């Protein structure tokens, strides 16, 4: 019954202190399993269609290493800062946690800005959703990831703002924890996008 | 705690049903909505069979026929079978594991409303320019703008919304079964229906994202001019087939495993014996779930994947016959030497066993690639999958409904009507689908709206249509039975069947908190263990105390309504409407996040007032 002792001393690992918190974390891990299939299907589609440029620019002509490397650096670093935030959560240091989460959000926004710039640049070069199967597959896969980043930013901000009012409790702690799980997941997906879409696209050669 | 011991706002009538987060009420909602869609899909089937009753008829015509077969398949799989399965899972699984609710009551309600609005969206196509007409599999390129009507957009968006609901429902049941079991309820003490629900939920989790992606790609092709399936722009139509069946084949196990679970409960209870080979049943369930992901390409033998792929997928498919055979023998051996009774629930269960075995056998025939080249797209396939889905799943659902009806509604179904229901439905079913095997072998292709006289197809088609009337009468008798039971004033006892599992240890219908005190589980068939030990009921794991309950909420309904509105916006390329719908949905998500639900408490004195012995 002791599920709502908001004012009591915060227990260790507050995100797992209640059954609700435990359910949330397990449910979210399972959700990420489903997301893995989702991105797996998108990757498979992309690999099948990545050479079908339909007369438009090829991946070798499009991709620009410094830009993608910078985006990768931003996103990977944001994963690290979200780890620092969870470490602060476990030390029950709300201020530090909020600070690291803010850094995470800023890095995520930087990544998103680069991606929007990149997409606009590609559209300018004639690489569009409608220009051919490669374009459709590219924008759907990378765009789905970008939409996940954008949603993650809004989500983390929502949790951060409500915690200013509610404080760090057994109700808000699981929210931070789950949001950071999500953030790691989109980071891992990006590692695969960087490899499969960009590196393999720049080196060239057909798969299989 | 006292600060949170507020009471639930008392909502009554329709507002109560729109806001409920109680798994028992959500189960009833799933049953009613799924039942209505079942009747719609049945009406479509009736029209299909009337059109095919004699050669060269013009009852509905070719265009409507295409719409009818598409909507019949889509409705029956996604909007009738799945929800009725979810109805029984919701009503029974928490009770079987000794839980007071599911892990995420709010998400549970959201899952229902998403399914409901998705289903309504698909069906509004009948009134808004024509239903989808590319078959329930909606293969590209047929389903692209050039070859199909506006109806496909309803299919794509409606299934996307309904599929989201199913996915979160699956996650909810996985977490519920992992985290919410009563003390002593180890995994290997869980009733078989709970095990089947667990494996089915796992399949939902890993199968539905594939159709989500498939539907997104088709939506982008149709609405935004993408080129995934357009061969002229480098697209590849086989991708749709792969994505559809990577979802679609696990889907048939998502459907049949809960039926296996129901049959296991019913056969064991009415044989008054412990289920024979319980651990092998659990193993077989998990193995079928696992193998279910390895066989999707057996729907695509004629696509041209080559002999190696065809052979491997054929072999993997045949392998599934092994765990399925284990199950069939276990049911037979459960009955062997048991004190068998035959109320309607057990009639359906016993009718299920040979019928499903026939469907399984034709499945192994279809798994042989060279033979499949002959059967492919013929009525033999139609006969096969109706034997497993109607003869398997629907018989199982009827067995489950007759068995658990008293627990869900607190009233018994009439046995005389039930027996008429069984025999008309059973005989009607076999009359309808048995001749279709031979129609297929004689060369009648599926999905044709008529056929010529003098080709030996008349008799089979005529018998098949006559059989449909039997199934129709059976279905009507079930509705009559439900009505009669609702009108009767006789209350069902807590344990009408001399049951073995936890749901029979509490009143029918159960109070909103299910268990006044969490039970202590001391073995497989938890209630039976206590009965054999001479105890009147369960031993409790906790003293009587205050029970925390979640509040109802309008948000799941409104959140789903938002997506429903956005769906129309996408279809009519009206992005203001899309925006409004999305703002509603995301606004509800935001409200849910910002406003914590403290819930309310039911105190021990209230529990005793309600007549539960402390």
Strand and helix layout:
The complex is a heterodimer of chains A (208) and B (614).
Chain A: H1 19-49, H2 59-62, H3 65-90, H4 94-124, H5 133-166, H6 172-203
Helix pairs in contact in A: 1-5, 1-6, 3-4, 3-6, 4-5, 5-6
Chain B: H1 13-19, H2 23-51, H3 62-96, H4 105-124, H5 151-179, H6 192-224, H7 238-271, H8 278-291, H9 307-319, H10 321-335, H11 344-366, H12 369-375, H13 379-409, H14 415-441, H15 458-487, E1 519-520, H16 526-532, E2 539-540, E3 547-549, H17 555-571, H18 575-594, E4 600-602, H19 604-609
Antiparallel strand pairs in B: 1-2, 3-4
- How far is the first residue's CA from the last residue's CA of chain B? 22 Å
- Termini separation of chain A comes to 58 Å
- Main CATH class of chain B: Mainly Alpha
The secondary-structure class of chain B comes to: mainly alpha
Describe this structure in words.
The complex is a heterodimer of chains A (208) and B (614). With 208 residues, chain A is mainly alpha-helical. Chain A has a single domain, classed as Cytochrome c oxidase, subunit III, four-helix bundle (Four Helix Bundle (Hemerythrin (Met), subunit A), Up-down Bundle), CATH 1.20.120. Chain A is built from six helices and no strands. Chain A has helices at residues 19-49, 59-62, 65-90, 94-124, 133-166, 172-203. The termini of chain A are far apart. Residues 1-7 of chain A have low confidence and may be disordered. Chain B is mainly alpha-helical. Chain B has one domain (2-553, 597-609): Up-down Bundle (Cytochrome C Oxidase, Chain A). In chain B, 65% of the residues lie in helices and 2% in strands. Chain B has helices spanning 13-19, 23-51, 62-96, 105-124, 151-179, 192-224, 238-271, 278-291, 307-319, 321-335, 344-366, 369-375, 379-409, 415-441, 458-487, 526-532, 555-571, 575-594, 604-609; strands spanning 519-520, 539-540, 547-549, 600-602. Chain B has a two-stranded antiparallel sheet. In chain B, helix 4 packs antiparallel against helix 5 and helix 7 (238-271) packs across helix 13. The longest helix of chain B has 35 residues, at 62-96. Residues 1-5 of chain B have low confidence and may be disordered. At the A-B interface, helix 1 and helix 5 of A face helix 5, helix 6, helix 7 and helix 18 of B.
């Amino acid at each position: 019954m002791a599920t709502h002792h908001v004012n009591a001393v915060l227990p260790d690992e507050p995100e797992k202190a209640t059954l609700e918190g435990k359910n949330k974390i397990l449910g979210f891990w399972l959700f990420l399993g489903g997301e893995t299939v989702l991105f797996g299907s998108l990757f498979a589609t992309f690999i099948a269609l990545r050479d079908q440029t339909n007369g438009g620019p090829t991946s070798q002509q499009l991709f620009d290493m410094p830009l993608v490397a910078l985006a990768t650096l931003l996103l990977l670093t944001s994963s690290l800062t979200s780890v620092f935030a969870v470490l602060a959560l476990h030390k029950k240091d709300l201020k530090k946690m909020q600070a690291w989460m803010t850094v995470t959000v800023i890095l995520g926004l930087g990544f998103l800005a680069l991606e929007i710039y990149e997409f606009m640049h590609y559209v300018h070069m004639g690489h569009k959703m409608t220009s051919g199967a490669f374009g459709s597959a590219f924008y759907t896969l990378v765009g789905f990831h970008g939409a996940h980043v954008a949603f993650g930013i809004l989500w983390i901000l929502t949790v951060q703002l409500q915690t200013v009012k509610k404080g760090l409790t057994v109700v808000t702690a699981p929210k931070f924890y789950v949001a950071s799980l999500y953030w790691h997941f989109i980071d891992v997906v990006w590692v695969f996008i960087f490899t499969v879409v960009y590196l393999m696209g720049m080196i060239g050669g057909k798969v299989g | 705690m006292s600060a949170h011991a507020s009471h639930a706002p008392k909502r009554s009538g329709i507002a109560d049903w729109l806001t409920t987060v109680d798994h028992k009420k959500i189960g009833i909602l799933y049953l009613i909505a799924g039942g209505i869609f079942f009747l719609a899909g049945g009406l479509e089937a009736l029209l299909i069979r009337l059109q095919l009753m004699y050669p060269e008829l013009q009852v509905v015509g070719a265009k409507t026929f295409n719409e009818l077969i598409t909507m019949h398949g889509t409705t029956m799989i996604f909007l009738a079978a799945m929800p009725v399965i979810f109805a029984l899972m919701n009503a029974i699984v928490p009770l079987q594991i000794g839980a007071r609710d599911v892990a995420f009551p709010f998400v549970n309600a959201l899952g229902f409303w998403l399914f409901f609005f998705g289903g309504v969206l698909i069906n509004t196509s009948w009134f808004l320019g024509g239903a989808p007409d590319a078959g329930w599999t909606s293969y590209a390129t047929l389903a692209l703008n050039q070859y199909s009507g506006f109806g496909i957009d309803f299919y794509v968006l409606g299934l996307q919304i309904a599929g989201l609901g199913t996915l979160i429902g699956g996650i909810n049941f996985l977490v519920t079964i992992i985290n919410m079991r009563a003390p002593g309820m180890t995994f290997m003490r869980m009733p078989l229906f709970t095990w089947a629900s667990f494996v089915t939920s796992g399949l939902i989790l890993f199968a539905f994202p594939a159709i989500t992606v498939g539907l997104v790609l088709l939506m982008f092709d149709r609405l935004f001019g993408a080129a995934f399936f357009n061969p002229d722009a480098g697209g590849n139509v086989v991708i749709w087939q792969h994505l559809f069946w990577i979802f679609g084949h696990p889907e048939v196990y998502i459907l049949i495993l809960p039926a296996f679970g129901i049959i296991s409960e019913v056969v064991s209870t009415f044989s008054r014996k412990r289920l024979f080979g319980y651990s092998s049943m659990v193993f077989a369930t998990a193995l079928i779930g696992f193998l279910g992901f390895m066989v999707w390409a057996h729907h695509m033998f004629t696509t041209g994947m080559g002999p190696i792929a065809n052979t491997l997928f054929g072999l993997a498919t045949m392998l599934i016959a092994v765990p399925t055979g284990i199950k069939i023998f276990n049911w037979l051996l459960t009955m062997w030497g048991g004190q068998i009774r035959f109320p309607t629930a057990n009639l359906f269960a016993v009718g299920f066993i040979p019928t499903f075995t026939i469907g399984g056998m034709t499945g192994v025939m279809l798994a042989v690639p060279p033979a499949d080249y002959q059967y492919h797209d013929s009525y033999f396939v139609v006969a096969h999958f109706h034997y497993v889905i109607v003869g398997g799943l629907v018989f199982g659902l009827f067995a489950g409904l007759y068995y658990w009806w008293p627990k869900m509604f607190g009233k018994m179904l009439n046995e005389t009507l039930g027996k008429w229901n069984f025999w008309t439905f059973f005989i009607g079913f076999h009359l309808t689908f048995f001749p279709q095997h031979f129609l297929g072998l004689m060369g009648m292709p599926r999905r044709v709206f008529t056929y010529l006289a003098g080709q030996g197809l008349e008799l089979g088609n005529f018998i098949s249509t006559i059989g449909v009337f039997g199934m129709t009468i059976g279905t009507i008798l079930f509705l009559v039975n439900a009505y009669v039971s609702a009108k009767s004033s006789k209350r069902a006892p807590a344990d009408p069947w001399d049951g073995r599992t936890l749901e029979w240890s509490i009143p029918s219908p159960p109070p909103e908190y299910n268990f006044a005190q969490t039970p202590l589980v001391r073995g497989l068939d938890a209630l039976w263990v206590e009965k054999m030990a001479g105890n009147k009921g369960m031993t409790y794991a906790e003293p009587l105390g205050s029970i925390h309950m979640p509040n109802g909420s309008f948000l799941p309904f409104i959140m789903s309504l938002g997506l429903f509105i956005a769906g129309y916006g996408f279809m009519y390329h009206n992005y203001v409407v899309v925006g409004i719908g999305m703002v509603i949905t995301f606004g509800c998500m935001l409200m849910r996040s910002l406003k914590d639900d403290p819930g309310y408490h039911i105190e021990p004195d209230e529990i005793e007032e309600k007549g539960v012995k402390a």
